[in-house]
Amino acid sequence: MRILGIDPGLRRTGFGIIDVQGMRLSYVGSGTIVVPADQPLALRLKTILDNVREVIVAHQPTVSALEKVFVNTNPTSTLLLGQARGAAMCALADHALDIHEYTALQIKKSVVGNGHAAKEQVQAMVQHLLNLSGLPSPDSADALACAICHAHTGPLTEKLQASGALGKLGITRLRGGRLT
């Protein structure tokens, strides 16, 4: 399985690609889409859309993982982040990739073991888990962490849903890594 992780942002959108074979994670590539701030919003979103499409064509992922939007104190920032996520999601949907969404808390908990970990801790754990020679940039590290989170949690969720075990146990879904 090849996972494309996306850390959306209107100024900087991180992407990271990993291969998963059993329990083994392998680094494929990562980077940051830098969006010129002086462009109108529509062109900035198109930049994200076009660049994510290029990443998909270049690396041929089989599944994608995307960080969910959180609500912060500034509603305008939240809406703009949502639009950046939407542009990335459209690129993923254009290529018929399954999209799995995770909160920042879920991602940090899966990768670092602490949902409130600092960015530096996430970078260090991504470097360690993928056996990288240096620290990835913050945006790339967040995207790779999103992909790692899916590698750790996605297969179990899919197996539980496919087996029907969730419904038989009276459990309707997984939320935050917990059966609810």
Polypeptide structure, described:
The structure is a single chain. Strand 4, helix 2 and strand 5 (98-102) form a beta-alpha-beta unit. The longest helix has 26 residues, at 138-163. The relative contact order is 0.18. This protein has helices at 41-59, 75-94, 104-111, 119-129, 138-163, 165-168; strands spanning 2-7, 12-21, 24-34, 63-67, 98-102, 174-175, 178-179. It starts with a strand and ends with a strand. It is built from 6 helices and 7 strands. A 5-stranded mixed beta sheet has the order 3-2-1-4-5. It is globular. With 180 residues, the protein is α/β, with parallel strands linked by helices. The model has no long low-confidence stretch (mean pLDDT 87).
Binned, the helix content reads: 40-55%
| SSE ordering | EEEHEHEHHHHEE
Radius of gyration: 16 Å
Mean pLDDT equals 87
Brief digest:
This protein has 180 residues and is of the alpha/beta class. Helix content is 49%, strand content 23%. Strand 6 and strand 7 (178-179) form a beta hairpin.
Q: What are the SSEs and their pairings?
A:
Blueprint: E1 2-7, E2 12-21, E3 24-34, H1 41-59, E4 63-67, H2 75-94, E5 98-102, H3 104-111, H4 119-129, H5 138-163, H6 165-168, E6 174-175, E7 178-179
Parallel strand pairs: 1-4, 4-5
Antiparallel strand pairs: 1-2, 2-3, 6-7
Keywords:
180 residues, 5-stranded mixed sheet, two-stranded antiparallel ribbon, 7 strands
